[in-house]
Each structure stands twice: as structure tokens, then as C-alpha cells.
Amino acid sequence: MSSANDKRTESIPDDGVGEASGALRLDLRPGHDVQLQAAGSNSRIVSRYVGQHAGRYLIFRGGRRMEDNLQHMHFSAGEWVLARMVQDGTVLGFWASGLLGFRARILIQHRTPEHLLYLEWPAEVAEHSIRAAPRIPCLAGCGLTIDGTRHDGALLDVSETGCRVDLLGLDEDALGAQNRVAVSLHLPGQPGPVEISATVRRSKVAGGRLLLGLQFEEPQRELMSEVRRYLQDVD
């Protein structure tokens, strides 16, 4: 690796790739935390995603902490970097769809007006499930209140931190601009429905059904412990 003081050409190399029509899709928001690690080294920082030109490059800036400054890594053009990020959530979130990882070559670093790192668009991205709370699959009745209107549905699975709900006959327009809802769960071993405030993290329409992934506003550890104890007793 070269010194952080080495001079480099401050231009984007034209590799003739252009915007690839079949490019991998990386749904990242500016400010998304991405861990960068120099290939063949244990050195790593948590950078922040800036933007992309699909099929050509990804752009990163230094992280929020002093130790996550890009200059600390002494990256050089042409070197390989390992990147790891969480899709649809944060590393500490409980409703992340998976940990995404890829490796890519460094194109260039800009140093003015701020330090930015350009990585070549990855050829492939690996995904691994990182669910933080184990889920209990089930098929039970539930209710969902959206903007004061109650809708009946089916509970597909539940954990301490969230659940999946199937609402028949609704589409995504039913949510409007609202992503906070109240969910009423009919859980095994409970004397009555349990009311929980939740946030919609994922939504999908399939075959006239609206499938929602909900994250509870407060972890339901005690409740889920009771449910697990009940299920163990009846096995």
C-alpha cells in the first residue's frame, strides 16, 4: 500500500463499461454505513455511502468516528477492498433482510473538496441472513389498524422484534404515507389478543395479498418467552 500523501490522478477512468443494463442493484441510501476492509489485511473502517453510477462505480466518504477516516487506511488505486453492509436496516436493527458483501478494486480517491473513495462496480454480491431474533412460524389471526381503520389478516411468523402479516384484498395504497401501525396478535398461550405498536419495514403485493414485515417499537422479550414456554409444554 502507498502512503496517504501519494499523489493520484483526480479523474474517473473511462473503462468503456458505461451504465450496465443488467447491473446488480444495490439499494443504498446516502449515509448508509458500509464497512470497508483492505484485502489481505485486518484493517477496516466504517465508511458512509455517498452515491453510485450503476454498473460503473460506488462512492464512499469517511465514517462518523475519527478512527473511520479514509486517510487512515492508505488505500491505493488498483487495490482490492472488501465491503460489508446491511440491506434494509442497520447492523443493530432487527428487521434487516441480510448482510451484503462484495469485493471491488479501488478506482481513485478524491482529496478536494473532501476525501472520497471510488470503488469499481462489483461483479457479484453475496447475501447472508442476519436475523437477530429467532422467529416462530405460525398461522394465527391478527388485526392491523392503519390510520384508524382496522383490517383483519393472518400472522405468518413472530419474534421478539417483529412479525410478518398477510392482509387479503389490500394493496400498498392502503398504507398511504403512514408506516406506523397498531397490530393485534392472537398468540398461542395468551388469554386474549396482544396490542403492539409497530413500524412497517417491508411491503409486497402478491396475488391480491399485501404482505407486511413489521418491526415492533419495543422488543417483546417477556411475551415471546411466554409463547415459547407454552409451545414447549404442548409439544
TrEMBL record:
Chain intervals with Basic and acidic residues compositional bias = 1-11
Any matching Pfam family: PilZ
What SUPFAM superfamilies does this protein's entry cite?
PilZ domain-like
Q: Where is this region: Disordered?
A: 1-20
Domain (PilZ): give its ranges: 131-232
The UniProt entry, under Gene3D superfamilies, shows:
Electron Transport, Fmn-binding Protein, Chain A, predicted glycosyltransferase like domains
One GO MF annotation is: cyclic-di-GMP binding
What is the protein's given name?
Answer: PilZ domain-containing protein
Organism the protein comes from: Natronocella acetinitrilica
